[in-house]
Amino acid sequence: MTSDVTDTGKFGTGPLSRVSALIYTLLVVELLVLLTVVPGLVALVLLDRSAGNVPLMAACLLPVGPALSAALYALRHRRRDLTELRPAPAFWRGYRLNFGAAMKIWVPWLVILALVGTNLGNFSAAGVPGWWGALLVVLAAGSTLWVANALVITSLFAFRAVDVAKLAAWALGRFPAATLANACLLVVAGGVTLVATEAAVALLASVLTATVLWNSRAMIAEVEQRFTRQ
């Protein structure tokens, strides 16, 4: 039988404890994300999937930005030691600290998404060429990859919104592996939404957020090294 006590005799720092700590943190963060977004999520699930409701769908997603920002903050600052876990206080601290900054990034993205969705929903009636629809899809995907970078940056660093926007766009080309990984994650999330509902994606929020954070570790390290005071 193996023990989770290290050679130094300290409990809670072995491999089993680290895995348990990660699972516990993900579960707590997931519950807190759901708690902060549940009103909008319920309304979103009940809305009819029509082009006219796209702006309302975007409005339902307003609470998601600060919640994801708080989740990123809590996961970034999580403790590996099972005896020192405090994911809930870290989440609420991140929520308070980053609410305004996250909304400055999140709201413009939702506006773009609402405009794209409305145009695509009325695409046949508009009589525009097919390439315009493809361009709109590329715009939606590109802006989503951008907002993922922007949320990571604004959740972990204290930059002005305009600087966050520039850094997030710069990171798309500077870290192509991370951009590709996030694009794959976007495809998975979109597939889950199509097959199931938005609620299914919400139930995976902490896992998806942790994956984005993992994909962004090179970007985080370079931003910290190049653009913050040591």
From TrEMBL:
The chain crosses the membrane at residues 21-47, 53-75, 95-118, 130-159, 171-194, 200-220. Keywords: Membrane, Transmembrane, Transmembrane helix. It comes from the Bacteria. InterPro entries: DUF624. The keyword Transmembrane helix applies. The keyword Signal does not apply. This is DUF624 domain-containing protein.
